[in-house]
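Sharing in case it's useful to others searching the archive later.

Someone asked me privately for the predicted structure of Aminopeptidase, so I'm posting the question and my answer publicly. Question first, with the sequence:
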Amino acid sequence: MKGTLVYLLAAGVCCVLASPIDLLKPATTVVEISPRAELEDYRLNDDVMPSHYDITLTPYFEDEDSHQAFSFDGISVMTFRVTKPDVTNIVLHMWKINITSWYLKRASDSSDVPHGVETYDEETHKLTIPVNQALAENVDYQLIFNYVGILDDDMHGFYRSYYKVNGKKVWMASTQFQQTHARRAFPCFDEPRFRTTFQVKINRPATYKAFSNTPIILQTPLSNGRYQDEFAKTPAMASYLLAFIVADYEVNEKDGMGILARPEALNQTDYSLQSGIDLLREIGTWIDYPYSSVPEMTRMYMSAVPDFSAGAMENWGLLTYRESNILYRKDDSTSLQQQRIAAVISHEIAHQWFGDLVTCEWWDVTWLNEGFARYFQFFGTALVEKNWDLGLQFVVEQLQGVMQMDSLESTHPMTHNVYTPSQVSGIFDSISYNKGAVTLRMVEHLITTEKFQNALRQYIKERAFKSTRPENLFEALNEHGDASVRDFMEPWTVQPGYPLVTVIGSKDGYSITQQRFLVNNMNHDDKTTWPLPITFASKEADFANTKPMIVNTTTYKITVTNPEELLYFILNNQQVGYYRVNYDDDNWAKISEALRSENFGGIHVLNRAQIVDDLFNLARAGVVKYDAALEILDYLEDETEYPPWLAAVNGLTTLSRRIHHEDEEKFAKYIVQLFSKAHGLVKFTAPTDEESRLFTYLRINVLQWSCNYGSITCKKAAFDEFVRYYEDPANKVHPDLRQVVYCEGIRQGTDEHFDFLWEQYMSTNMATEQILILQGLGCAQDREQIFKVMDAITSDDIRPQDKNTAFSYLLLNPYTLDHLSEYLRTYYVRWANAHGSYANVASAFNNLLARMKTDEQMWRIRSFAERNEQVFGAAAYNSIQSGVTDYFSNQNFTNKHREVIGGFLDKALAKNNGAGKTTVGILTLVAVIVALLQ
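And my answer, the predicted structure tokens:
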């Protein structure tokens, strides 16, 4: 699961178009709120241990007697014991609820326990209840609370959402408790180490249904026309895993699995239902612990929620999803969206073991939950969808993706202290998710898949219904691998970053050295080292060996006979190891020559992707000159496989933001030239049933880049397809071509074309189609059209969960930047109201500053911020000033490398004098419209 607070879009490498991007790990950074209490004060002590909660909730969707609409009544009875003598205070969490009365009693006879007056700390969310004399050990007590809460619309806690039927809103309520929001629904010990059972009762209106983690065991009509649904007791679990939904939903159910959805969307649930059934069975078999082994879990429900801050959530037995991550219809969803749905389902189902059955003791080791779920998101899905080459996608999307964040000085280790709710939310990032999964894959290849699987089976059985720490995992891995597994794995979890391994040839072999890779500061004095998993290849057959030797020294010599006779020497077969590699000039020359030879010299497709990603980042870090890197990367003209092109798209996206604005036309011509052969290979055509999934993804990437940078052939084909659709809306565009077609339709079209696509957005019943349309609308160039989208973002026309998505697509289109700046400077109050704070205004400006290329653009924002410093407040104002500093840093980078990059572009274009004829007029750089589903 990935939660949200206030987010800034990442200014670094973009997410990849045709990979299974989900909202479990948004490419965002949480705005940190400075703690206003001592850090330890945010944590609970272990003086008191709860064992059970009885919770009764009554939600109101309209004014009813003395109850206000969008409120709820709650009764919570918490059973607990003290764990030590002399306990005179009970401290637990609550937030945004109003306790109307409370009682402290002995459970055995309901006798009152004398107590003092409670106190509450708004900052730490702690409710403290003093007792007049120490509570007795080995005695059950009960805290009984009567309270009132709010069904807010911020997608946290017990909150309200809606869908429309015939244009009228139909209200519902759902939950999102991870990480610290169960306390908004009932007073509780809201930390993952406190495992208890729960029994829930929902008093619902007669026209609604209620759902929770377990099945309903009793339905009782009430005198006020409501019904009370009582659910079976849950297994012992953490508070964040409790869930309930009150909605007029339908269920598509078979074989112990059910999909909950609004009635109009039930026809979009068949694929997710079958995927859920298959994945629950296969992952349970793989881990040798079937889901049904937990007696309380007699069925699994998965629910589509219209407004959902996260991508999905692993509530035990009641998984919740954003609609775009679970609702699928073949004729209206892309291949990538289908893969995303399967992958997100796999992620959440994996959590039933890694997170629910075995729960991280505290959020400082979130990776013990999320790293495993991300691992199974790929390798668990592959158990069911065997032809999607998910292992290849994992390397470029997950491993290379997290390297971007982890190469910054602001990164953090996987195991990392957190205390406040803001810090906890921030740890749910690509380090916990991607790097956690990458590290697990390294260990798997170190000890073999069979031993890795056996170790995890033991780990799950030993830690079932318990909290876990890394040492528990290390013990199981040591037992099934060898005693050195912990020595290998632990440094990767407790140290931030990763190494650059440099390979220098000599007459008798190769010397390797390691140094921490910091993309913006390679002249650092950081002496961190890691145990390196070393494999190498000098011919095609060698790449199959992924079982490494471990090098624990700063330098190491690999002895090779007659190294000068080798075709090449490439480190890190199939990029299993989490590190970058740089070579001396001679070896880079050999690699370059091999890449241009038949079958790319036998270099494995993942190592070609590794070379592409490493070169872009080594050039960015100043380790390799840009012209030298780009000369090698020019081999991409003949590349035919998806993973290397995927790595190239990432690198070129980052590079495009650093191209001097006066050089954008020749950069655009170069892009069209670079992609021209691939464009001819994939063609502008709908995918066939026979072609591979990765070829379909390659087509989408190639067409997008070719059209965006001005290929006449691509742009004409896309616009003609849009006009055909415009003239006959019943004849829809193939889903896998819609992203490109919608974009060109808006880019080249008229106001009528824009209004037509907007009408499709407002009328479609498919969340996946809405995302594709938002991508298309993001390609607008006209000021009035851009303002229309911004108006929609600040209105109810675009749902809260999709507002950042819509802004992202506008932001990634350079034609919009000046207009977005003008809109935000004019309507900043409206933007703050729509997004909840001026911090979001600052966030929007910072994202503009990260992409702007002229001082005039920057000064408009800087001057505006200075004039409105008092309105923004210190935190938001200082954030914008930080964005200005980053702007100057980006400009310095651009100017530093302009001559070298420009010289390469001139040379490359000179190879093909006709290349310019394939582009349209005087081009302004059009950045990639990325598939960020957030």
